[in-house]
Design a protein that fits this description.
Aminopeptidase, six-stranded mixed β-sheet, 4 helices, 6 strands, 27% strand, acyltransferase activity, transferring groups other than amino-acyl groups
Amino acid sequence: MTTRSIPTDAAESVSGLTLRQDNEVVTREAQPSDHYAIAMLLHQLGYEATPALILGRLQTLIPSPNDKIFVATVHENVVGSISLHTFPMFHAAGYLGRITSMVVEGGIGSALIAAAKGWFQSVGCVKLEVTSGDHRPDAHRFYARHGFRRDGQRLARNE
């Protein structure tokens, strides 16, 4: 595991891994042992993700070169997570990077976005998108502050 030190007023990220010594916020790749904390964070968003489900997902996604899960920690306690996935674009060169979940406590989302952008860039993503429910206007404003704009519409169907 690699971490990097940055001052509070800097937005520097190397390979998407950052360390903010002043606030003791560390972003790092998720480990299977983070499953319970991630499940509890996802419950805050209304997801019924059990610790067992998250453990299984971590065990599947951690070895995948197309997926990455980062956590943010304060004093070694997980206070945020973000899940990232890449897809080759059919109609254009490069890869699409998609954020499919992000949940944080205490306003440390920017550190997770920095980690995501660094990883997406390192794996050749030329376009990034985020999936966020219509009922989360605060999240939409947060993503807009980080350069995400409405681009098309996603339609879904439960099976």
